[in-house]
Amino acid sequence: MDRRGLPLMPCSEKRARLLLARGRARVHRVVPFVIRLTDRLARNSRFQPLRLKLDPGSKTTGMALVLEKADAGVGVLNLFELVHRGRQISEALMQRSRFRRRRRGANLRYRAPRFNNRTRRTGWLAPSLQHRIETTMSWFRRIQRWVPFSALSMELVRFDMQAMQNPEIAGVEYQQGVLFGYEVREYLLEKWGRRCAYCDAQGVPLQIEHVLAKARGGSNRVSNLTLGCEPCNLDKGAQDVREFVKEKARLARILAKAKAPLRDAAAVNTTRWVLLNALKTTDLTVEAGSGGRTKWNRTRLGLPKTHALDAACVGTVQAIFGWQRPTLELKCSGRGSYQRTRLTAHGFPRGFLVRQKRIHGFQTGDRVRATVPTGKKAGTHVGRVAVRATGNFNIQTPQGVVQGIAHRHCTMVQPADGYGYATRAIK
After folding, report:
1. If you average pLDDT over residues 66-80, what whole number do you get?
2. Confidence (pTM)
3. What is the third-level CATH fold of 173-261?
4. Which of 10, 49, 107, 235 could cysteine-pair with 68, CB 3.0–4.6 Å?
5. Where in the chain is the domain with CATH 2.30.30?
């Protein structure tokens, strides 16, 4: 960046070290690493055509900053992978709902439902889906503050979820659906041979059972339903089917009949147009590419399969060079919680958390450098800190968690911003 905070062209690591050593620049941000020049203005600089490419996903969104050259293809400057926390948000909301239901049931014999008087605005998305849009747009704006890119490319993929369940589907079968001519129970009885999927019991009352329990994110889709006798249903509970079924042959048969859950494909289908429309509100040129073209570009150029390199292959690409560089992983970790009471599985309080967010000037999520002079943990540890009221902190480093580091040994590197950072090489 220039001395007024406007973005300049990216530079190599060697040039950044030289600028810092000669006093011509200072560190503006540690992760991602950004320097700020003290002797240059953006209006006196020349810019090359840069483009930011996006590959939206349900769990991870790939981003690639590339330099466009008309005769030599595109050069990769930076690779990012944004790891979403949509599932954590969904589970937290479900837990909050259960706790509220218990409290209200404990204090009131009956409470009339209030959901009928609530309306949702047009274009409303579930919080776990809206999170994917907002974090992607947040990092788009962050990178825009640091880099003067002038164009965007986004993969506009659409999953055919019926074909994912039945590859041979065609024609009018799309309109008829899986349960054409059946009720749900009758369909499951025919599908599973009128016997318990876990113990092969016949001639006993069978209950509809979720292969992937709803408590673990399972849906009510027919592909996630099976039949089980009452003892097996009670024994399984919310366990994963891989934990409950010990016989490998039976487990393989159950998983083969029950298709994989499609919540990831549904999340991408729901958010793809919302994200594209949000990007179109900017003043930049937006290019939309199909998933088939992305795969064709990656296969033709012989690139490994990663989210970040998929983003680099979005749109029209003749050649890609400079892609053998580390990928910066941006993991959404949140900014803490308002909850100040630990609860049991039934919603009863079992302990209280500290009432202040900062302990000795640090808060959970800060990036710190701890220099321990003596003892078993002697050395330098750099990573994300988890504060404790005692003043002895835990530090998450790339090598693992280091526990019990005194606050007096810690030095702030970068304040918490709701993300955890890690660098990994492409294999």
Report:
1. 90
2. 0.81
3. DNA Binding (I), subunit A (1.10.30)
4. 49
5. 356-416
